[in-house]
Amino acid sequence: MLFFVAVAIFSFIYLPHNPLRSVGPDYSPPSSSFPFGTTNIGQDVLSQWIYGSRATLLVGLLTAVIATTLGTVSGIVAGFIRITDEPLMRVADIVLTLPTLPLLIVIAAFVRPSIVLVSALIAFLSWPLLARVLRSNVLTLREMSFVDIALLSGVPKLKIMFNDMIRHLLPLILAYSMFAVIGAILAEAALDFIGVGPITEYSWGAMIAYAEDNSAMFNGAWWWVLVPGISIAIFSTGMALTAYALEDTYKEGVSR
Questions:
Q1: 122-132 pLDDT, tens per residue?
Q2: Would you call 38 helix, strand, or coil by DSSP?
Q3: Which domains does the chain have, with CATH numbers?
Q4: Which of the four pLDDT bands, split at 50, 70 and 90, describes residue 200?
């Protein structure tokens, strides 16, 4: 995970070649001159991969921030303030029934997609999962003695909800924010692959889409598809394993 984040940061400092300009022979396999090979018009795949890490990780980061904020606020409020529980959870149920990818495709057909728009849409469709998980845990935490002591001591409810509760729920919040990153990266790649994503923002998904459009595999240019595809797989796997570890940490803490 840290390696890919470092690559994205490094892309602002140095790129071997202009990722969108022809710099070598067409469909050149990996070599010392072009470690990840070239595209159908001689573009350097290594430069595209480094440059594309920005948009890919940015989609995941923006989605995680928006979805985590919405899910955390609504989940804690629903679990702590009983009168808000029913309406907030019904809204969450409605959003959960919406099919994510088909809805994104329909919206992209009417509105020119961008990184920010795609991130916001994915976040809007993914916050209910975190909200429901946090709500059920807040219902349990609310019955614990430290909450009663805080209320009797005159501590404001807002401070209890967004200070004490978040401190207890932090591993769980981080875990589900990582799941949001994974979902966002895969959804953005899927949108790019079918041609309705933010294709002007070069990402790993856009690389796979361009490779497919130009029959890369048919022409033997497996490296053009393999590099971004395996990067998405490795980064997502790392995020998932970390998220599961954080979830286990929270469960162990609760059991104690």
A1: 899 899 999 99
A2: strand
A3: 65-217+232-256 (1.10.3720)
A4: low
